């Protein structure tokens, strides 16, 4: 079993609350818009980090992280990208890949809107953790945490970090 912390859209912001949740995770997944690499460095000190770059990330982040990250956690195939949309409205850049070979778990960021929903047509679960940074139109900073045990995604929890 793995305890996962999922976050996105830091826009260079990191604080002790985020890091305390990171410390309790087995893995940290970041869905882009990291900003300053001090954010990813601080997270990686707490637990193994899997991340993608986002549209605000500079050449350093783009060199360190891919645009799309596809991997297995336990027996669950995961696909992460920053601008991905959601079921019924996937972004054009990723739509074909998702439709041709759907993962069990599709993760994106970018919208700053926390959303978890099933795509019954493709048989996948979509997660967007919202934004944990202080820049953007969102009112409350959010992250997600959950467990993966074999093929089972479970114990999903929304973490509210307060107003931006």
From TrEMBL:
Its cofactor is a divalent metal cation. InterPro entries: Calcineurin-like_PHP_lpxH, Metallo-depent_PP-like, Phosphodiesterase_MJ0936/Vps29. The keyword Metal-binding applies. Keywords: Metal-binding. Residues 3-150 form the Calcineurin-like phosphoesterase domain. Its EC number is 3.1.4.-. It comes from the Bacteria. Pfam families: Metallophos_2. Belongs to the metallophosphoesterase superfamily. YfcE family. NCBIfam families: yfcE. This is Phosphoesterase. It comes from Mesonia mobilis. The lineage of its organism: Bacteria, Pseudomonadati, Bacteroidota, Flavobacteriia, Flavobacteriales.
């Amino acid at each position: 079993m793995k305890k996962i912390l999922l976050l996105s859209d830091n826009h260079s912001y990191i604080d002790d609350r985020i890091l305390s949740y990171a410390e309790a995770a087995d893995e940290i997944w970041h869905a882009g818009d990291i900003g300053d690499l001090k954010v990813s460095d601080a997270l990686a000190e707490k637990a193994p980090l899997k991340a993608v770059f986002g549209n605000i990330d500079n050449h350093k982040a783009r060199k360190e992280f891919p645009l799309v990250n596809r991997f297995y956690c336990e027996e669950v195939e995961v696909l992460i990208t920053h601008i991905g949309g959601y079921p019924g409205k996937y972004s054009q850049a990723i739509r074909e890949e998702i439709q041709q070979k759907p993962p069990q778990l599709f993760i994106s960021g970018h919208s700053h809107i926390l959303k978890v929903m099933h795509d019954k047509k493709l048989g996948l679960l979509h997660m967007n953790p919202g934004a944990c940074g202080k820049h953007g139109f969102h009112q409350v900073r959010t992250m997600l945490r959950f467990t993966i045990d074999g093929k089972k995604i479970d114990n999903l929890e929304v973490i509210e970090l307060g107003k931006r």
